[in-house]
Specification:
The chain contains 12 helices and 6 strands. The protein is mainly alpha-helical. It folds into 2 domains: about 290 residues, Up-down Bundle (Rhopdopsin 7-helix transmembrane proteins), CATH 1.20.1070; about 100 residues, no CATH class. The strands form 2 sheets. Strands 5-3-4-6 form a 4-stranded antiparallel β-sheet, covered by helices on one side. The protein has a two-stranded antiparallel ribbon with strand order 1-2. Helix 1 crosses helix 9. The radius of gyration is 30 Å and the shape is elongated. The chain starts with 9 loop residues before the first helix and ends with a helix.
Length: about 450
């Protein structure tokens, strides 16, 4: 801050009002998330819901620091403070502890959510595996580490007033730059900021970046593979193979057979889960871009503008998380009740205990369904080599992202052995049905991971 930044500056008072309003909004948003989770029949039975619950609790702790409006900051001549500061060392320690623990805990939980989405989408880890092997470490890092560091900083007297909040700082304020002034509290505050503030944020940033890149690459690859197995491409391959064998002896008519190639998740579920993960990361970036600008790009000309933007966006993390959390419920409500206005849809998504998908007529719930149907006695017959080639093609090209049920592969023994003819009947009948489904919202049988977001 420049020399004109004196206690009681009107600009600081406006910043206090902005941050207080943002803190109240954030507390309301995080509280609604907790109420929606606890009122739901699912409650906290899944990893995703427990992570969101923990993140919301940390958001509330952090936002309450700004709701206090600078009151806990000590009112003395040695610190830079707002006009409404009435606190002392004890209140400053309490606020500093809440500020650090709530902020870092919320950031760590958001980071754990990114890792969770990566495990679910990219590596297809089941809920039971994550609960037993991974989730305990999620909570360990998100609770114990911020809590332990927060207690350490409090007992070593490193929380001191900085404007309208208490944070890791020197006391008196200018003891780090004035050799004639001795620091009585927070002597190594600059190094502690590097260890306990900048380094954790840098680690979280690189984890976010790695998860975003991995998720984006997977989604791009997934869309290419799903396009490859589209209905038109598969139907064209079937016709091409069949026509190439028209001159060969044909077996007797085939019995009706059904082959199912089932993906681990539908295209719509993968897309919606990916969007959810990217929104959590985007909310975190929007929250912390202005504190980063203050550290790396602030000047005397823009410091107050950036400070105002930081005071507005930094307490709003819980508010952003609220809209991100409620988005899948809003999307599902709009599908079930398309005639409602957006405001009524939002209210329904918030107040409803459970959002259920629309029940429609029964439909194939598989990623690909290929039916080769030929009634006994009909003129159509497919050679066993066609079936064998198609099965081999699907097995080879689909092993990365599809789970093929072996009992659904068309066996060669479906051909009647006693009626093979040297004069094949004309192929005057088209392949009756080749249907593909990506299991979009019409399918009420959502996978467990996607259903947990409702």
């Amino acid at each position: 801050m420049s020399s004109d930044d004196t206690p009681g500056d009107p600009m600081l008072s406006s910043i206090v009002r902005i941050s207080t309003a943002s803190g109240i909004i954030s507390v309301i948003g995080s509280t609604i998330i907790i109420l929606v989770l606890l009122r739901s029949p699912k409650k906290l039975k899944s990893t995703y819901r427990r992570l969101v619950f923990g993140m919301s609790c940390m958001d509330i702790v952090h936002s309450l620091v700004y709701v206090s409006g600078g009151l806990p900051v000590p009112n003395d001549s040695e610190t830079w403070h707002s006009t409404n500061a009435i606190g002392n060392v004890t209140t400053c320690n309490i606020q500093g502890f809440m500020n650090y623990t709530g902020l870092m805990g919320s950031v760590f939980y958001d980071c754990m959510l990114s890792i969770y989405f990566t495990l679910v989408i990219v590596y297809s880890k089941r809920e039971t595996f994550i609960q037993k092997k991974i989730e305990p470490f999620f909570h360990l890092f998100s609770i114990l580490i911020p809590l332990g560091i927060g207690i350490f900083l409090m007992v070593t007297n490193y929380y001191n007033g900085v404007g309208f909040v208490c944070w890791i700082h020197h006391y008196p304020s200018n003891c780090d730059v004035d050799a004639d002034v001795k620091c009585t509290r927070g002597e190594h505050a600059t190094w502690y900021k590097i260890y306990f503030q900048y380094c954790p944020f840098a680690l979280v940033f690189f984890i976010f970046l790695a998860c975003m890149i991995r998720l984006s690459c997977f989604i791009i690859c997934q869309y290419k593979k799903m396009t490859k197995y589209s209905a038109n491409v598969f139907s064209a391959n079937v016709k091409k193979k069949r026509n190439s064998l028209q001159t060969l002896p044909s077996p007797s008519p085939l019995r009706t057979r059904r082959m199912s190639v089932m993906p681990t998740k539908s295209q719509n579920e993968i897309r919606q889960t990916f969007i959810q993960a990217m929104l959590y990361v985007s909310g975190m970036i929007l929250t912390f871009v202005f504190p980063a600008l203050i550290v790396f790009a602030s000047t005397d000309d823009n410091i107050w503008l950036i400070w105002k933007l930081q005071s507005f966006f930094l307490p709003l993390l819980g508010f952003f998380n609220f809209f991100i959390f409620i988005r899948p419920r809003v999307v599902m409500t709009m599908e079930v009740k398309p005639d409602l206005s957006f405001f009524r849809v939002l209210i329904t998504a918030i107040t409803a205990k459970e959002i259920k998908p629309q029940q429609v007529g029964k439909r194939a719930s598989v990623g690909m369904t290929v039916r080769r149907r030929s009634l006994l006695g009909s003129p159509m017959a497919l050679d066993a080599r066609v079936i064998e080639d198609l099965n081999r093609e699907i097995e080879v090209e689909s092993d990365d992202d599809l789970d093929i049920k072996e009992d659904h592969i068309i066996p060669n023994n479906v051909i009647e052995p006693n009626t093979r003819s040297n004069n094949p009947p004309p192929y005057d009948t088209e392949l009756q049905e080749v249907a593909c489904s990506d299991g979009d919202a019409e399918n009420p049988n959502m996978t467990e991971d996607y259903n947990n977001m409702m």
